[in-house]
Amino acid sequence: MSLRLGLLALLSSEPKHGYQLKTEFERATGGMWTVNVGQIYTTLDRLVRDGCVEISPGADADQKQYRLTLDGYDALGAWWRALPHEDPPPRDELMVKVLLAIATRPDEAISVITAQRTAVLELLQQRRREQRLATERGASVAQVLADDALVVRAEADLRWLDLCEARVLHAATAATTPPTIPTTRATRATRRHADPTQLKDAT
Amino acid sequence: MTPILEVDAVTKCFGKGPTEVRALTDVSLAIAPGEFVALMGPSGCGKSTLLHLAGALESPTAGHVRVDGIDLDSLDARARAALRHTDVGFVFQRLNLLVSLTALENVMLPLEVAGMKAKDARGHARTALRRVELPEPWERYPDDFSGGQQQRIAIARAIVGERRLLLADEPTGALDTISADLVIELLAAISAEQGTAVVLVTHEPRFAAWADRVVFLRDGSIADQTRAAPPGPALDDVLAGSSA
Fold it and tell me: What is d(CA B217, CA B25) in angstroms, rounded to the nearest whole number?
């Protein structure tokens, strides 16, 4: 997403000046996204140019206040209603690396998966420690939720790596094990009668 | 410094002959006092077997398991039971709380079984229940508490009397996410603040990530492990205390 949409969201409650937008944006995103005040003013200038934001009349000339226009409210409403899209397709390094390892180095794929899983888990441990410290220092709800989002994403990567391992091992077992005929009670009985020793015992 | 738990080249087989199943193969692992270690791996990888060996619930087919330097093989059945009542605590997904006893009586029970007088056991049990932050009154029965609170009673029972090793097998399996998070945070705090080593078996990375070290098992062997976390002040104190 763009900073532009974040500023529209923050301005929807009341007019604000540039530095106030910077601090509120960082607080609302749990410290996950830091911006410099120059980026804020550049983005505000573009929003004014596009008619989504205007300078609040009667504001102090030294400290301009900005407010949403009707077009700005429309643009923000459209964003709240829009579904997150998945285009372009996910191409994160972890996924591509593991897929390429499975395709090109099948004998070593498990060790690549294992090493990646250890690395992701170490990252998750690090985030947990940071989360614990932040909680002890009285973290805001936004900070806790932002940390939760990072933890949950790392968990998703780990679950996917578990699946990769299970499927690669399953495929390797299937390739080396001769196909077996499922043995139901009926097939076991048929085999017993087909066995000459069993027939001899029966007679 | 002696590890509180040392698993030395352990192999464990169940059954014999054609029905033999090998659960662990040549596994070695050392856990320091106050360390929090998570065991992860797919079903059937041997993590629960490893926990049962550490708690003297099973014996290895080959190799040695030592708790605080004592080889469990050298102990007779009575001494092993005593070890489980005094040094090693267990927490399972199934709480195994006695419904006819109050929370306080459940926590007193292992100490009384070990021969402690009721008055002393009550004092230790109160300390443990305060440690797990179970809301009073403690004279209520387990069914009067929520699932998360019942797990806290089980943890209090497992740590009562200052045990040095806590073994937890999927302790969050029956809990909702928030209650489960609180239980794991409690285990982490017990390890960091009391110097009790904790071994946690879990399928959940979010819980394993609380541990100082995560050990992955696959097909009965250690496949990999994360680097041990740098010791915090509490662990430093424990190490300094043990070398003094």
Answer: 11
Of B211, B223, B229, the CB nearest to A114: B223
Beta bridge partners of A61: none
Q: Which residues contact A151 (CB under 8 A, 6 or more apart)?
A: A124, A127, A128, A131, B206, B209
Residue A84 reports pLDDT greater than 70? no
ipTM, two decimals: 0.71
Assess B235–A contact: CB distance below 8 Å, yes or no: no
- The helix/strand/coil state of B214 is strand
Q: Does A159 touch chain B (CB under 8 A)?
A: yes
Say if pTM beats, i.e. exceeds, 0.90. Answer: no
Position A196 scores a pLDDT of 44
Cβ–Cβ < 8 Å for B31, B195: no
pLDDT: is A135 or B138 the higher one? B138
Pairs of CB atoms within 8 A across A/B: 48
H runs (alpha helix) in A82-140: 93-104, 109-136
> What's the pLDDT at B230?
59
Cβ distance B227 to A162 less than 8 Å, yes or no, reads: no
Using a CB–CB cutoff of 8 Å, tell me whether A125 touches chain B.
yes
- A67 contacts A15 by C-beta, under 8 angstroms: yes
Determine the pLDDT at residue A88: 56
Chain B residues lying within 8 Å of A124, measured CB to CB = 205-206, 209
Residue A155 near chain B (CB below 8 Å): yes
CA-to-CA separations, A102 to A99, A106, A119, A172, in angstroms, rounded: 5, 5, 18, 11
Location of structure tokens 């509120």:
A24
A108 touches chain B (CB under 8 A): no
Name the residue among B206, B228, B181 with its Cα closest to residue B40: B206
**Beta strand residue intervals within B93-212, DSSP E:** 165-169, 197-201
Strand duo B197-201 + B165-169: pairing: parallel
Which phi and psi angles does B73 have, rounded to 5°?
A: -65, -25
Give the C-alpha separation, B128 to B166, whole Å.
Answer: 13
